[in-house]
Amino acid sequence: MIHKVLIANRGEIALRILRTCKELGIRTVVAYSTADEDSLPVKMADESICIGKEQSQDSYLNINRVLSAAIATGATAIHPGYGFLAENAHFAELVESLSLVFIGPTASTILSASDKTNARLIAEKCGVAVLPGSNYSLANIEDGLALAEKIGYPVLLKAKNGGGGRGISVVENRPDFRDIFQRTRLEARKSFTEDGLYLEKYVVGARHVEVQILADNFGNVIHLGERDCSMQRRNQKVIEESPSPLLDDVLRKQMGEAAIRFAKAVGYRSAGTVEFLVDQKGNFFFIEMNTRIQVEHPVTEMSTGIDLIKEQLSIAFNNPLSIVQDDVRISGHTIECRINAEDPLNGFLPSPGTILNLVIPGGPGVRVDTHVYNGAKIPPYYDSLIAKLIVHAPTRKEAIRKMRVALEGFVIDGIATNLDFLYVIMHNPVFVKGTYDTNFVEKALEEELHGKLS
Length: 454
Prior knowledge:
single chain, alpha+beta, Dna Ligase, domain 1, D-amino Acid Aminotransferase, Chain A, domain 1
């Protein structure tokens, strides 16, 4: 049994995990950096322990310090949240070697799924379509050029061990290939310490749709529907919604079944997400699997009424799933907006500082996941996400209207945020119609947004 969980993360996800643990009567320990000593998770946890200075490599990414904190506090399990060490197979392996419970998949599963080229091979073997490309790391630029010529431009260069929207570049033609290859390899090395790249055909006008799955240790795997994550800026998700405006019931069923096949093929357990691209003809292709809880998991929770963190913990207790596929009911429409401390009028640069005035919206069908409060300090060292605003309504049209009202009532003074940016999107005719794709913000909307906001 898990008696005490060390939360090896920060911000809103640390608080989200903490609250569910409290509901289940599980004691919590929050591991924090010196930059987060006054944070809400630290204040609300049963215990807290400082694991280092402000920089991530000195604290949240320092495996030895995280493990030492777990041992020192008598934690019996570690929840990694998302980001940081959540998809680090070596970390999961060390947790297991210390007879602690890693709340997530096994180290071998993380290793198998996080290698994107290996994941492509697994997808093919279990009958899930992949985009034309390489199931191996490109040996050199010439190797990449030859393959790009074979499958045709445009193509994507992607970091083999990438994630979080980093290490991805579009190459439109042969003359640009060499420079982009070298730049992407450098980014991969800086972000992931490994500079292996692979190549995929780039799909123009594609939608990014992911399927949430739950899997236990007894071979039971179910899906909880999809989330449309196509509203992106520079490969970073901005708005997510469920169900996807693009999918019909037939395609939805096919994608759910494909996600389950892939999860079973890698021996998955815990909550996870299988991500797909959907082209303009309705064909879908496997991209990758995220072996962790997603930032956007509240979308699925609002649509299904299922607490995904609670399910993660139950699976970690070695319990079978409490529900079967036929029990899953997806109702109404859910939209999530990511609220970031960033300045849309200054190239979306991060905007650290102190929150001087905070008003959080409410009402039926409105949820806000956040760790900030009046007087909270937003440090410059981490991701700029400070809140997630989620709304649920019977129809998509009603959900959009509810989100507009909620954004109007969301006040954050003292720092720049993207609240107005999101408000403009909620009124854009293409978004309202649901016909946007992954390039919509950058190619069709950014200039309009800048003009309206300035």
